[in-house]
Amino acid sequence: xxxxxxxxxxxxxxxxxxxxxxxxxxxxxxxxxxxxxxxxxxxxxxxxxxxxxxxxxxxxxxxxxxxxxxxxxxxxxxxxxxxxxxxxxxxxxxxxxxxxxxxxxxxxxxxxxxxxxxxxxxxxxxxxxxxxxxxxxxxxxxxxxxxxxxxxxxxxxxxxxxxxxxxxxxxxxxxxxxxxxxxxxxxxxxxxxxxxxxxxxxxxxxxxxxxxxxxxxxxxxxxxxxxxxxx
Length: 231
What we know:
- The chain is mostly helical.
- It has helices at about 1-25, 30-40, 45-55, 55-60, 60-70, 80-100, 105-135, 140-165, 170-185, 195, 200-215, 215-230.
- It has 12 helices and no strands.
């Protein structure tokens, strides 16, 4: 019984770190805006364009969920994704620190890579939260995820400007790399259940996704959202 509690606590901690890492990524938002405006001297329209490009991974977020549920990496459909993409995110911030302030296209490419890595980790973290919630402590797991995410967002909102007053952009990017690397290291100790390992294939996942999308409560909300963008 004690072993089960330890497993749940570790999983909840990793889920919380995934959420916190997503929220705290905005720590560098102010630095990136100044990078666009002062160093690259971009117009507001071009800044909006590049910000939109870096947001594309979040627009196609369901794709990452289908990928994680369908394809195992080294026999893992949860831990490996968090470890690999956590390291990708951390490495992206380090590259931003050393090379991402010289060329606008390299900058956008690195930020898109980071955005993709954070999005994949977010998808897997939410999947872990749901899988744990099907067993027990549902409200607790949901509270942990969104609570850690909110704390990360508040931390970013307060310290993004404060750090920029005392540190340069490169140092802030290095600080930002700490969180995904920490998340990746702790995820090495995550133990996946047999149910996670024996997921369905991509055809079965796509069928389930299509049945989910056909629910009027789902597609009608999407239709209303799209209409709201034009009217």
